[in-house]
Amino acid sequence: MDYIKAFLVGGAICALVQILMDKTKLMPGRIMVLLVCSGVALGFIGVYGPFSEWAGAGANVPLLGFGNLLWKGVKEAVDEEGLLGVLKGGLANASAGISAALIFGYLGALIFEPKMKK
Description:
mainly alpha
C-alpha cells in the first residue's frame, strides 16, 4: 500500500506541475524554484512534515521534498549554532543528494554524448 500511496502522491505533484507548465508562461527553471520555495514554506508552517510522513517517497522525492530538506537543515543548524546555521545548515543536510546528482549527471554526460540544442 505504501508504494501505491507514494505513486499516487508523486504522480499528483508531477501532474500539477505539468498543468502549471502547460497553462502558464513560466519557464521550467522558475517552476523548479517555485517548488523548492514551496517545500521550504510548507516546512516552515509545519504542514510538510505530517504530509511527508503520510505520503512517504511520493512527497520526499519531488522538489518539494528537497525544499523541505533544506528547511529542516537550516532549522537544526540555527538551533545548534545560531545565525551561522542559516548559511550552512541546508547544504549540510542536502549534501548527499546534491553530490549524487552531480556525480550521476557527470557520468551520464560521459556515457551518452550530450549535444547542444540548436
